[in-house]
Design a protein that fits this description.
This protein is α+β, with helices and mostly antiparallel strands. It folds into 2 domains: about 5-135 and about 270-360, no CATH class; about 145-240, no CATH class. Helix content is about 60%, strand content about 15%. The chain contains 10 helices and 6 strands. The protein has a 6-stranded antiparallel β-sheet with strand order 1-2-3-4-5-6, covered by helices on one side. Helix 1 (about 5-45) runs parallel beside helix 5 (about 105-135) and helix 6 packs across helix 7 (about 270-295).
Length: about 350
């Protein structure tokens, strides 16, 4: 017995066509608007046309990622709306096919989009960093000193620095953390009272500190040192004044390591925790939004395209506003940050289940 009936393939095809048009069309529109607004600024930086074009190529994954739930909503509303207006939904019910069974290919498509969103969410930080490099953005003005900051370095390392003096090439109170995977690649925590940069060898020399090696959760090997040279600490003093990665420029695992590092140093990590939760909540929204959009699309048979566009745009705007609102509340600590990112999904999911239960099957 075939799992996908001809009607399933028909519904899946309609859903896929509308989804692709929306998922690609919205980002292209945003890029055109953004380029029109910022072109003068980019030309004043003497950026070449190739740099600008490649920067927008690297921005495309982020643009698609943010619009995926809206694209699923548009595809759901227009697919079900079309079936309703042309009486195909009525014919399917008369043939013994319930409304819930009709939604199976749409939920299947939304689940595929969700998995795609998870993968795309890990690609976005890489492309965003490359875009900022091409546009020469995200750097501090050079200064001699910087205080109490964390720096996310390659190889999963995080530096926590109490004070940096660029001119003297000196760091006061340095902590270096690298998260491991087990005995063959253990976690280590390195702390030093001071660190000096050697301009000849391009290396930092760490002084008066200790090294903790943690092969697993039960063992901790500690080594004290008077002076040690860190072969992986390759950043020059001026490099440490670069703008640190924003949460949007970190992958899921990197964000988790950064949160643990901030918590150990006593810093506020609420903002990072909300961003970590959003990396899961936004892809999951691609499925939850079907519960909300499908029953709304059956509420009228004469609304036509204008009705579908109105419902989809209004829902998208409300959803994005809720994300920004709950994100700000979570970052402020009024509600648990891990919960803040999920409140919009919970609200839309609850309303969607109620609406779906009231649809005539």
């Amino acid at each position: 017995m075939r799992i996908l009936r001809p009607l399933d393939r028909y519904v899946a095809t309609e859903f896929t066509k509308i989804f692709i048009i929306t998922a690609l069309g919205f980002p292209l529109l945003v890029i055109v608007i953004d380029l029109t607004d910022r072109l003068g600024k980019y030309l004043n930086r003497h950026l070449t046309p190739e740099q600008i074009a490649m920067a927008y190529v690297y921005w495309f994954p982020e643009s698609i990622y943010m619009v995926l739930p809206a694209a699923v909503l548009f595809a759901t509303v227009f697919t079900i709306g079309s079936l309703t207006r042309h009486s195909e939904l009525t014919a399917a019910k008369a043939s013994g096919i319930s409304f819930y069974r009709l939604l199976v290919p749409i939920f299947g498509g939304a689940a595929i989009v969700m998995l795609f969103a998870f993968a795309l969410g890990e690609l976005v930080p890489i492309s965003d960093i490359k875009r900022n490099e091409l546009l020469e953005e995200g750097r501090y003005k050079p200064g001699n000193e910087r205080y109490n900051f964390a720096y996310s370095a390659p190889k999963g390392r995080v530096y926590k620095i109490a004070a940096l003096n660029v001119e003297r090439r000196l760091i006061d109170n340095l902590e270096v953390e690298r998260r491991g995977r087990g005995p063959d690649y253990p976690t280590y925590l390195l702390a030093a009272r001071t660190a000096n940069y050697d301009t000849t060898h391009k290396r930092w020399t760490l002084k008066a500190g200790d090294l903790h090696i943690l092969p697993d959760s039960t063992r901790n090997y500690a080594i004290q040192f008077d002076s040690v040279r860190d072969a992986d600490f390759l950043e020059a003093p001026i490099d440490l004044t670069s703008a640190p990665k924003s949460p949007e420029q970190m992958g899921f695992r990197e964000l988790k390591r950064f949160i643990r590092s901030l918590e150990r140093s006593g810093a506020d990590s609420n903002e990072i925790k909300v961003e970590l939760s959003l990396k899961i909540a936004i892809p999951v929204a691609c499925v939850i939004i079907v519960f909300f959009g499908a029953p709304l699309a059956t509420s009228t048979q004469r609304g036509g395209t204008a009705f579908g566009i109105g419902i989809s745009l209004a829902t998208t705007i409300i959803y994005l506003m809720l994300i920004q609102l709950t994100k700000a509340i979570g970052e402020g600590g009024a509600i648990p940050p891990y919960l803040a990112a999920w409140i919009p999904n919970m609200i839309f999911g609850a309303i969607g289940v109620v609406l779906l239960a009231r649809v005539r099957t």
